[in-house]
Amino acid sequence: MEPFSGFTDSNSRPVPIPVAFFSLIMPQIQDLSELKIILYIFWFLSRQEGDFQYITREDILADEILLESLGGNSVMVLDNGLNNAIMHGIILPGNQFENHGKPNIFFLNNPNGRAGLKAFQDGKWSPDSRNHYLVSLASERPNIFKLYEENIGPLTPMMTDTLKDAETLYKPYWVEDAIRIAVEKNVRNWRYIDAILRSWQEKGRNEIDRRDPEKNRRKYIEGDYADFIQH
Questions:
Q1: Which residues are CB-neighbours of 176 under 8 A, at least 6 positions away?
Q2: Distance between CA 120 and CA 117 in Å, rounded?
Q3: What is the domain count for the chain?
Q4: Which tens digit of pLDDT belongs to each residue from 21-30?
Q5: Do residues 138 and 173 lie in contact, with contact meaning Cβ atoms separated by under 8 Å?
Q6: Where are the strands (E) in 12-56, listed by range?
Q7: Taking the alpha carbons of 30, 36, 38, 39 in that order, is the dihedral positive or negative?
Q8: β-bridge pairing 55-56 and 105-108
Q9: 207 is a domain residue
Q10: Domain of 216?
């Protein structure tokens, strides 16, 4: 994947994180997955409105990008991360349960979250979907049309329709990753990008290959997609 190009005005919306998290909590966290989940919760709650901000287990499970970042057995990893975050006193579980007996609603352990938890448990407040927004990391990512235009070529009407079709056929971050691979390999044409997407769709994504830069390089330069590279 192409290295991060840097923060800009459009992707620099701040996420408030209490200073105490860095001085008192972060040194105790040993598990990278727990850290990802905690940071995700801070981000998610910063985009909520209403009297009390909360997050549910379903909210997190709905975000495919986060789950993919947690690796194999992502649901189990998520539950372990949530349990650790509860143990470290970062989030507070409500008493709304799923079929498997796991807490389903969580509040941040700050004044607003503690007040929300008490009001919820006392029956004086209940979650209101009108003020609860299902946001996802995908919505924070670059628009694939902009990404294509900035890195591959101009957006003709035909290319716009092609990208719209790709959005319905593939996961949005697949298209982004394929474009980035094309840029990294300096093969800036849609046929190459489409070949990668079709291969992922038919054969599945090989995350191991993506972690092995040399194997990945040979695959894209000499392997399945060599016909799409102009020598």
A1: 141, 142, 144, 147
A2: 5
A3: 2
A4: 999 999 999 9
A5: yes
A6: 55-56
A7: positive
A8: antiparallel
A9: yes
A10: 141-228
